[in-house]
Amino acid sequence: MRIASFNINGVKARLPRLIEWLEETRPAIACLQEIKSQDEGFPGEAFEKIGYQAIWHGQKGFNGVAILVDGETPVEVMRGLPGDPEDEQSRYLEAEAKNIRVCNLYLPNGNPQPGPKFDYKLAWMERLRQRMTELLADEKPTIVLGDFNVIPEDKDTWSVPAMQDDALMQPKSRDAYRTLLNQGWTDAIDTLNPRGGVWTFWDYQAGAWQRDHGFRIDHLLLSPECADRLTAAGVDKAYRGREKASDHAPVWVEITE
User: Fold this and answer.
1) What percent of the chain has pLDDT over 90?
2) Which phi-psi region, left, alpha or beta, contains residue 57 (left: φ > 0; alpha: ψ -120 to 50)?
3) Catalytic residue among 52, 57, 147, 239
4) Cα–Cα dist 25/23, whole Å
């Protein structure tokens, strides 16, 4: 069973590319980030036409997450990350589908740092850690996936000097990500590609795609109950090179059913 994550960078702007990817790769579950759509404007009917049922947590103009499931309707568990009742940004959606708990997130970028946006990122990651602790205690097969906006290690970027001042690879960002893993979660792509050099994002600027100047910020974290069933993980890199593509490529994991 394939479970995938795709920061689509505008679901309506990229809809033809998104439909292509879904039909060509057919993940059982597909999690989208940065849908950049209000709830009422989300194109759910387009996915129904190709056999996917969806739930979504939208926001006008930016952020927003969605979960699409092939052949069944995902059962929503949680909308929004607990821990801050004043946080109105649409960045987290949790559901049950295909006998898996799926937690789809779009973690704050944190730039510029230092500053309030970086503080918000770190506070959000602490709230995420608390939720992931609860999920582990449930001992259900669980995947936490999405755009984490964290470059975990130096091997996960084309250039450490180019990114050294960015919020994505500050020591505090990396420490917070490592704390998540140390609870008992498995980073699927890193586990199967321990030497690194795997990118999931290429900026639109400075010919980054053409020069393969990318980095890895889209992650799939598996609970022990899912990690035991891990068979493959990868990046659908070619989709980044298509016309009017997102600046991210889809990432995916395959587990036994």
Assistant:
1) 99
2) beta
3) 147
4) 6
